[in-house]
Amino acid sequence: MRTLIAVVLCATALHASAQSFQVHGFLTAREVRAKSTTSWIDGGFGKFDAGDDRTVNLDMAQLGVDWTPTPWLLVHADGLARNGRAAGAGKKAGLVQAYVDLFSERFRLRAGHFWLPTSRENIDAMWNSRYTITYSALNTWIGEEQRPVGADLQFSPNFYLTLGAMAFRGNDTMGTLLAARGWTLGNRLTVYNEVVPAVPDTTRPFGKDIDGKTGYSERIRVQLPERAMLQATHVDNRAVLHQGVPPEVPWLTRYDTVGTTIGSTAPTTLAAEWASGHTTVGFPGGSFKLGFNTVYALLSHKTGSERFSARVERFATDFDRGHAITAAWLHDVNAKARAGLEYVRASGTNGGSTITLELRYGF
Questions:
Q1: What is the pLDDT of residue 200?
Q2: pTM for the predicted model, two decimal places
Q3: Cα separation of 62 and 127, whole Å?
Q4: Nearest to 59 by CA among 93, 88, 27, 91
Q5: At residue 240, what are phi and psi to the nearest 5 degrees?
Q6: Which alpha helices (H) appear in the chain, and where do they start and end?
Q7: pLDDT value, residue 6
Q8: What's the sign of the alpha-carbon dihedral 170, 235, 282, 200?
Q9: Are 219 and 275 in contact (CB under 8 A)?
Q10: Confidence band, pLDDT 50/70/90 cuts, at residue 90
């Protein structure tokens, strides 16, 4: 990880004026009016990043760099900084991704710390959603708790088929947050080596490997370019069950997800994802196993500078179940600035609603 960061910094100094080096980012300000129980950020069990029937300000800055010294090599890193309220008990700034790509017409090898290519929502730069402000329960969980460190090999023999497999470490505690507070709805991204609340304890989603085991993921994607795609993915962190000390308690997590997009480049887009699996933790004399599943469908229409999106979803664990609806309006102020207004309502234990006003500037 340090080597990758060093490479990017060297690239900044030596190639700042070259076309192969690009810097991009977002500055985002949000005002959130919440009607819910105390947010998990503040030590509660609320499903949102804000709670307690009040209005809060949640701001974030994201910065990413891409260096392409040759046609077959890409070096990327991105990170974020957020205000104290958005950080909660966690880090105010940190690394989100850092990886190197080696690629040809049919193969791509990616090594480092990065997102698995599963989300049908978060398809814009630095894992932002182009459709809504608040992510679905599935992608909220992935943003908080799944970003492994490893190597991913992708093979595309033609325009229609893509196969991928990944070996990873450093994601041994994945599943802790689902067990601690169930599904949540937000847009907070955990940074590398960050400790986040998992009441009554804490967890470190991404950091050093704690059990010496290598997890894996495999996927298959079938697509009609610029029209539709279908992808199935399996993830298994292969964590070894043993008693640990928070924040480094291993959870054995396995799940499958299927996602589809229809009309990805058309004015009207339909996106959907389903996921189901289980997570298990060990303790002296036994273990505890939790099943979970979720599904969402999102419909979005873009006309001129306006985008209108609606999402419905259902989520469940063995101890809680609920559903949520989201309605979002996003307005392109100009080529770089975006304004948005969104309403989210969630049922189930510690449910509630939020109204969010967002202003975002991209560069």
A1: 84
A2: 0.92
A3: 10
A4: 27
A5: -90, 125
A6: 2-15, 84-87, 137-145, 176-181
A7: 44
A8: positive
A9: no
A10: confident
